[in-house]
Model the fold of this input.
Amino acid sequence: MEMRDDTTARSASFGIVVVGLVAISAGLVAMLVITTQAAFRTTDPAARKLLARLAWLSLALLCLAVVMVIWCVLRRIRYHVRSQRLPKSSEYVNAWELAGKRFKLPDEPEDDSDPEGHEL
Done:
């Protein structure tokens, strides 16, 4: 019986999550830059206040995305460190074959007759 190793699926999902978080972070950085530049250019106080709030929201979401990327990377590193410390699986042994080799039948003469005395 062979154990299924799903490290490729785990690596693919990790890559997708990290790439997605990095793309979200890049989008948030772009949004932060655009809103701060627009806030500095505008003269309307209401628009400036709205753009400043949008910039703060972008910054908060960016910080959250960066924390999530760091958490994913540290989790991946911890998984690799733990997997290297675990002992390797042992060699496959067919227990039924070994039991068959060890088992010895008692030395009795073979009797072809029925236990009730009827002949076959």
